[in-house]
Amino acid sequence: MRLQSVSVKLWLVMVTLVLLVLGSIGFALNYLFTGLYINQNITSLEQQAKDIAKEVADVTTIDQLVQRLSNIRYTQGVTAFVSDNQGNILAVSGVSMGMGRGMGMTMHAIPLNESEFAQALAGKTIKKTIMLNGTGSAVMVANRLTLASGSFTGVIILSGSLAPVTESINSFRHLLYYVFG
């Protein structure tokens, strides 16, 4: 009878160790995948902003800028904002709508503070993750935009929802819970 109690204790210790190792690996993978997916979205938006800035580099007027931006195909779920150097939104583009005038919006409508806006105007690429009002989170990239005539310098801001990333991570978590169970 003593042999059985030792073997039962040994099995309990092994099962506990396996569960601890699986839990640790699952937690680490969850953390790594979350960071990887978010960084991948930010990198994609950053490249898209640079491509757009190159695409409109030869434009000379604001109207031509709005027209050119309306012809660009944005990644699904991306919203583009173009502002002048004062922070007034000149044009907005969304998933289902074309590029349109900014309708009197200012930078206060976008979670980009004055310091970040000034840095973007100076040529630095601003990248950040923002929380949306009850609808999840998004990534945002702001880049300088200058027209060929030199008559206009502004900022292009691309914002993309992290909902697909969150769904993927939640699916992965459910899989981990299933395996762990």
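^ that was protein a. below is b, sequence first then the tokens
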Amino acid sequence: MKNRSIKYKLIRLFLIMGITPSLLIMSIMYFGVSDNLEKQTGHNLQILATETSLRVGLFLQNKIQNVLKYSAYSTLKRLFFPGSNESMASEFIRSLFKFDEDLNNICLIDNNRNLLFSYRPNFGTLNKIDLWWEQALRLHHREILFFSSPPSPSSSEKMKLEIITPIMSDLNDKQLGFMATNIDLSSLVKMIQTIPISGEYYISLIDQNGNLISCTYEKKHRFIPEVLLKFLFENSKGWLQGFDPLMKAYAVFGFDEVSEYKGHALRGQIWKVYVSRKKEEAFEPIFWLLVKLLAIGMGVILLILIIFMFRIEAIWKPIFALKKGAEMIGAGNLDMVLFIQTGDELEDLAQTFNSMG
């Protein structure tokens, strides 16, 4: 039967011995290279997250320094004393907004929770007095507190930075009240969005409550899912793999913590920068490399198979001749003589066959 032919058995053996090692070698190469690529991708994303966190840290330090400077002005402190020239102090506070375009509001609140001054008094400011007061109660002597303040769900405003600092008397160094400074983070968001990136990945700045302060991903949400949030805040910096709920795909994350301001006693939220890149995109080069290697490997195997099929005739034809000769002798033709000249064991077998005949 044809499927029992030595010729086809040799071809199958060649294919098994050629394809199996090739696939094994390519698998080893794929997993080895993909592991290195994974580590390199994570390391690069971590570097980008660190560079972004440094920029955010400089922005934060600049704003805190400005607030410290504002809270030290004697003209501002006069608003805490009865009979002070409120119009002059108010005009002075308004002049501060000419030097810092990110200032959104400054509120002065005394120790009895009374609102003494607000640059932009509105219903939202009145609602936030209780929140600011609760935050101010956590402050110790000469501490500063900062935290991100998300807008209402129905609002299209950007995230705000709230900085609370005590106001100390110049006479007896006692606390007169505190100042709540509201800073617009639009310029910070623009700064992050101008960081050059290409491909399917994005940069995000989040706080420990899961509020998304800034994100370069177009289809962003206002909050980070709890699973991803826990994932990112387990360590201060590094990289990891996981499911990205924003892109709905598995991704590689590089992340770093925004460094704290070292020039003053500071309490506040932990801010984290993380960079997410689709794992599919990150591994695309190794995928196409594997496809090329597979195509080249299959091409080489096909070429060798063609050469092998031509060369196998030198083995198969003498065996086929021996088979036919045996059939003819079995049919009574004892004068049958085989002429096989291969210079190997097949030729010796043919001569023995002739002698037997």
